[in-house]
Specification:
- It is a single chain.
- This protein has one domain (2-154): Dihydrofolate Reductase, subunit A (3-Layer(aba) Sandwich), CATH 3.40.430.
- Helix content is 24%, strand content 32%.
- The chain has 4 helices and 10 strands.
- The chain has helices at residues 24-34, 43-49, 77-87, 99-107, and strands spanning 2-8, 12-14, 38-42, 56-60, 72-74, 94-95, 112-118, 126-127, 136-144, 147-154.
- The strands form 2 sheets. The protein has an 8-stranded mixed beta sheet, with helices on both faces.
- The two termini are 19 Å apart.
Length: 157
């Protein structure tokens, strides 16, 4: 399971349900990284961005009455991972938000994070979950205008 997120220096990932910056190059990176994969997202994220082309959208929600015609709806992170394995065998599931879904994925033992570290500190109301950076090895860093893409892999004890 791979977490894919854009995170500001102050931890912000959204404000009023929207990304509070406009970095076209980061959006292209997101598209390249997630195309052809199962993407796991929370209901709020799904309602903001909808199903994305050339990806299987898996919506994680506590709302048992929620339905979506263009996505697979599940109610636990384990169900989300099973759906991803069925639809894209042998490929990692990509977790694309929001904050609660990222937190659940980290708690479930996600092994990789691909973070766009945005060089801004905008106001926001949604934050990426805190994690112990000492438990993660930085495998690669790619600088871009306004952000760095950082690949982190969980260290094993």
């Amino acid at each position: 399971m791979v977490l894919v997120a854009a995170v500001a220096e102050n931890g912000v990932i959204a404000r009023d349900g929207a990304i509070p910056w406009d970095l076209r190059e980061d959006m292209l990176h997101f598209r390249r990284t997630t195309t052809g994969h199962a993407i796991i997202m929370g209901r709020t994220t799904y309602q903001e961005m909808g199903a994305l082309p050339n990806r299987t959208s898996i919506v994680l929600t506590r709302d048992t009455s929620f339905t979506a015609d263009d996505a697979i709806v599940v109610h636990t992170i384990d169900e989300a991972l099973q759906a991803a394995a069925r639809t894209h065998p042998g490929q990692p599931a990509m977790v694309v938000g929001g904050a609660q879904t990222y937190r659940l994925a980290l708690e479930a033992g996600a092994q990789t994070q691909i973070l766009s570290e945005v060089h801004q500190s905008p106001e926001g109301d949604t934050y990426y979950p805190e994690f112990d950076r000492e438990e993660w090895a930085e495998e690669r860093r790619e600088p871009h205008d306004g952000f760095d893409i950082v690949w982190l892999h969980r260290k094993h004890a």
